[in-house]
Amino acid sequence: MVNLRGEPALIGAWVLALTSSLAVLFIGEVLGQMPCLLCWYQRAFMFPLAIILGFGLWWNDPKAGRYGVVLGLMGAAVALWHMGLFVGIIPEPIQPCTATGPSCTDDNQRILGLPIPLFSLLAFILITALSALSLKDNSHDT
């Protein structure tokens, strides 16, 4: 059985992964913004998080957070690279989302004044931390 202290952390990670997945689907499907290659890679790590963590909760798997840690770290690495390109730390031109349309790195593509790649990075960091916390809190369970 899942420890009651670990379950809220895993629920938080799942809600964040699900919300992030729905948000990028809204940006792509409703707003019509085609994702760039780096956005696609980040989605490749975020979408499974919502599914895997959700099933982990449903099945009361106290170790489900380990998948959140691994996928979260990998997604955070891509998001960190994306942010490095965005702020100019990595001296490589960033490829726009589409040749003629909006880009996740345009000034008009900010949310609350912050770039979309930063939101991705923050989401992956929080999901990783919450997933790790769920494992720590359940470490004495069998």
From TrEMBL:
Q: What GO MF annotations does this protein's record show?
A: protein-disulfide reductase activity
What UniProt keywords are attached to this protein's entry? Chaperone, Disulfide bond, Electron transport, Membrane, Oxidoreductase, Redox-active center, Transmembrane, Transmembrane helix, Transport
Kinase as a keyword?
no
- Which Gene3D superfamilies does the entry link to? DsbB-like (1.20.1550.10)
Say which domain of life the source belongs to. Answer: Bacteria
Q: Does the keyword Zinc-finger apply?
A: no
Q: Name one Pfam family in it.
A: DsbB
Q: What cellular-component terms does GO give this entry? A: membrane
What transmembrane ranges does the database entry give?
9-28, 40-60, 67-91, 111-135
Give the UniProt subcellular location, in the record's own words: Membrane
GO annotation (BP), single: protein folding
| Membrane topology of this protein | Multi-pass membrane protein
Indicate where this protein is primarily found.
membrane
Fetch the InterPro entries from UniProt: DiS_bond_form_DsbB/BdbC, Disulphide_bond_form_BdbC, DsbB-like_sf
Q: Which family does it belong to?
A: Belongs to the DsbB family. BdbC subfamily.
**Name of this chain's protein:** Disulfide bond formation protein B
